[in-house]
Each structure stands twice: as C-alpha cells, then as structure tokens.
Amino acid sequence: MKRSLRLCSHFSRTAKRSCPQRQLASIAGTRPFATSLRKLYADVTDTKDNREKVVILGSGWAGYVVARNLDAKKYRVTVVSPRTYFVFTPLLTDTAVGTLEFRNILESVRKAKSDIEFIQGWADDVNFVAKTVDVEPSVLDPAQSHALVQYRDAPAKESMLVPEEEKRINGKIHVKNHVPIFPVKYDRLIVTVGSYSQTFNTPGVRENAYFLKDVGDARKIRKRILELFELCHMPFISDETKKQLLHFCIVGAGPTGMEFAGNLHDLIHEDMSKMHPQFMKFVQITLYDVAPKILPMFDAALAEYASKQYARQKIDIKTSHHVEELRKGPPGMKDAPQKQDQIPPGRVFTLRTKEDGETGCGMCVWSTGLMNNPFVAKALSRARRFPVDSAKITEGRPIDQSNPRQWIIERNEKTGSIIVDDHFQIELSTESASSDKGSESAGRAVMQDVFAIGDCSNIGGMNPPLPATAQVANQQAQYLASAFNKHYSAATGKFDPDSYASSQGFNYNNKGVMTFLGSSKAVLQGPNTDREGAANGLKGFLAYAIWRGAYLTMTLSWRNKFLIPVQWLAVKLFGRHVSRF
C-alpha cells in the first residue's frame, strides 16, 4: 500500500514538472481555463489535417449558414463567435412575449454529429500575412447574448495597433491586462461579424433602453413586462405611477419595432388582461419614429393598412418625432440628469422628444437601425503589410515588401462596412506614402483568401446597397458556400480562387418583405409591381398565415420545425406562460 502511494506521488510530481499547462496557468490565472487554451492552440496548429482550414468569424445568419453548407470532406470549418448559437431573428419578437420559448429559435453551433469546430471568443485582430486571427475568449463575458451598442471596454483592444513582434510571445498565447489572446490560423477567412444596434449617441439610451437583437435581449424584455404588472400590485404605487409604469414606448417603426408592438398588444390583451384586469385602463403602447411614415420599405397602401390596424388596437403611432433623451426617474424630477447614479433602477423612465417634451414610461424598446461593427474599423481598416502570397493586383504594378505604399481595406464612407466585389472578396486600395498621390505606386488589389458577407459588407458599385436583413445574409451565405464546394480542386486539394473569380458573381433574389401586426394580421409585399408601379401585396389574415408558414419553412433544423408549431398550438389552447424568472 505504501509503495503504491509512493508511486502515485512520484508520477504526480513528474506530471507536474512536465505538464506545459502549468506554465500557462501561471499566466492565465486558472488551471482549467489555461488547459483549454493550450488544447485550443494545439488544435489550431494541427498539421495532420490536409484539408484547407476555413475560419468563419460570427455565428449569425451569414456565418452559421455558410458553415453548415460547406463540404466537410473538402474543408476544415472553424467558427469563431462570442456566442455558442445561431438565433432565428425573424421570430425573436415572439420569444420576447412568450409566444415562443427561447430555445425554439436557437440552433447550437457545437453539435454531437457536426464536423464544425467551434471557438467561443471575440475576434480581436487579423494578420493577413501570417494568416492568423487573434481571439479573446468570451466564455465568461456577460455581454455575449445581448445587443451590443458600443465597442467592448477591454484594455487589450489597444494592442491591435501594436506591431506584431511586440504583440505575441513567440507567436503563441499572449496575456495582456489579464486577458488571454491566442492566434487561430486560417487558409481562408470569412468575415461575418454582423452589426451593432444604432443609438445615434442619444443621451441615456445605451444605459436605459431595451434592445431586441439577441436572445438575451428578449429574455430581459419579457422579464421587464411581467415585472411592471407585478409592481402595480404594490399598495404604495399611485395611479399616476401605474400609468407611467404601464406605458410601453417603442422607438423605431420598421419591421422589428412594428412586430414587437403587435406581439406586445397580443400578450397584454390575450393574457395579462385576464390576470390583471384592473390595470388595463393604465396600459398604453406608443410607437415613435423620426421618419414621416411607418414601414418605409413597404408600399404606401400597405403602410396605411398597418397604421389603421394599430389605431384599432389603440397603439399610438407618432411619426416625425425626434428622441432627445432617455433617463431614469419620472418626468419633472428635479436635477434628474445629474443624479442618474443615485436613482434606483427598475422604476419609471422619462423619454423626452423634441416635439412632445417629457413622458413617463416603464420601458423603452429601441429598434432604430444598425451601426457598423467596430471590429471592422479597428482590425480591418488596413493591411499592415501587403499579403503577397494571397492578394492579386488588379490595378497598378506588382510590388515587393520594400514599397512604401500603405494598403487600405476599402470601406463604405457612409456606413463603414467593408467593400467587396460581387464574389465577396475584400478589396484593397493604396496611395503612395509620398506626397505624390499620382505616382505610379498607387494601385488596387483583391484578397483571394479573405471574404466578407452579411451586415458588415457592401458590394461595391451597388446603388442602393442591399438591405441588412436575414434574407440577404442567407442568400449570400448559400452562394458563397456553394461556390467554395464547386470550385474546390481535387488535384491540389484546395479552393481554386482563379476558377471562382471567373464564375458568375452574386445576384440577389428579392423574395419580398413581411411584417406581423398582431391580432392574427400581417402585411406582405412581393418583389414585383403592377402596371401602375404599385407593389403587389397581401394584408390581413391571409398574409399572417403566409408569414407563419414562410418562417416555419425557413427554420434551419427539423427539431425547431417540430417545436415551433407545437408551441404556437399550446399558446392558442392554454395561453402564454407568464412566470417571471
């Protein structure tokens, strides 16, 4: 027995001395986390797999669809994303009110029978010459399931402009400011990082508004709605305060804002009215938009129908209204802007507009549009060195590394999104480092191993640009995945960029737009127009039936194709689940 204990002790000491994870643990802080990082780095640098490694940044519509459609026999697919799932965003508003459960619209990236490799982290920087992406783990990041409205507050982001030789320790895992950053190698890189919620720097919106872009946002909204009705049962809450608490403000009269307003109306009048009938007289839903009309992408007749439908549901629509501030505290509170840190959370908010002044509300859902992902500006603004082995000069003379020119990644001047060609290859342009802009060193190039699709990209020369919708991202992802599979060269075992570049570029097929209005009604606008130029469309219950059928068909897994109609039926028969958790 004693001999066995001595042997165990000996092997334990030997393992501790030889285990490289212990060295990493002293850097990263915790042994299990460091061990997983070392294993990740080993996987990243694995040279036994002869397939080309395709790294996809993001797990939204573009990233997830292209990953699941790439042929695993031809490519080794690795997804890098801060969240472990894909969200079926067209039905996100249904989950915010309990019509669907959250998992009904989620698809896990990491699956038991999937060939997709997954790393949960934020892409931090890209080295086009070394073909690596620096990744910061997001496993413990609380922002991973919520809408992002600004660049994440992480000191390590300053390192993105540091020269490469100062950034890593022997090209391996580097820990700076207690944040471990490690490289992931790629052969082909597909950028699908999406976009952030746009706040237009309106005071108080980032801190106090509710957004609707991810499942964490939907959970937060659902909890707040139920919370407000429970607050009204407190005996010390006055009728005036109840009126303010049960005032639901929605900023943005596009499809997302309109659908949430319709879903909120159904929740309140079909379920909450049965449990809180005494509070129905205090309920008010107000929809704000800076534009002169709602649903600007729809035909005027369909938009007018939506307005009348909401008027019958007593949803107040205020167009041409400019939101100036959203703060904690009731209207008229003295020195409220200066005392925001002292006001307890979860009470009344004040929404101030240029036209109406201050109004009290229990929650404000912000759905006004999208802004470019700051990662594009931080990490994809320029190529520090020209990637000679992977970029192709399209204008100007071939260069060597000693040329003084600086290569800039083309981006849209208005939105900041990446400019790509109709094959989604990222374009580079340059001016001479000298003052002579007309010198012969100016040129243009295209990177044959880096692609961008989805909300973070724009096809150059396309006016107007494609809308940032799930439909567009889905079609782009299917095109790119199909092209990768088709232009794979069996002779070389690699993707053939020259064959791909000579093929037909992407062509968007507009299938129309749909919006749910509540009370089993919707509007649907097709891609074609009649002889007078008006868009062909449907409205009412028929449009609602098509809306549900279309989204059920678009659902990506058979599991959710089964669960979604079952949940719809359960809500119809038994009502929504209104427990607050």
TrEMBL record:
Describe the location of the External alternative NADH-ubiquinone oxidoreductase-like C-terminal domain by residue ranges.
Answer: 511-577
> What name does the UniProt record give this protein?
FAD/NAD(P)-binding domain-containing protein
Cell wall biogenesis/degradation is among the record's keywords: no
Q: What organism, scientifically named, is this protein from?
A: Lithohypha guttulata
Q: Which Pfam families match?
A: NDH2_C (PF22366), Pyr_redox_2 (PF07992)
The segment annotated Disordered runs over 325-344
The record's section on SUPFAM superfamilies has: FAD/NAD(P)-binding domain
The FAD/NAD(P)-binding domain, residue ranges: 53-378
Q: Which domain of life is it from?
A: Eukaryota
Q: Which PANTHER family match?
A: NADH DEHYDROGENASE, NADH DEHYDROGENASE (EUROFUNG)
Q: What family, per the record?
A: Belongs to the NADH dehydrogenase family.
For this protein, the record's Gene3D superfamilies field holds: 3.50.50.100
Keyword annotations for this protein?
FAD, Flavoprotein, NAD, Oxidoreductase
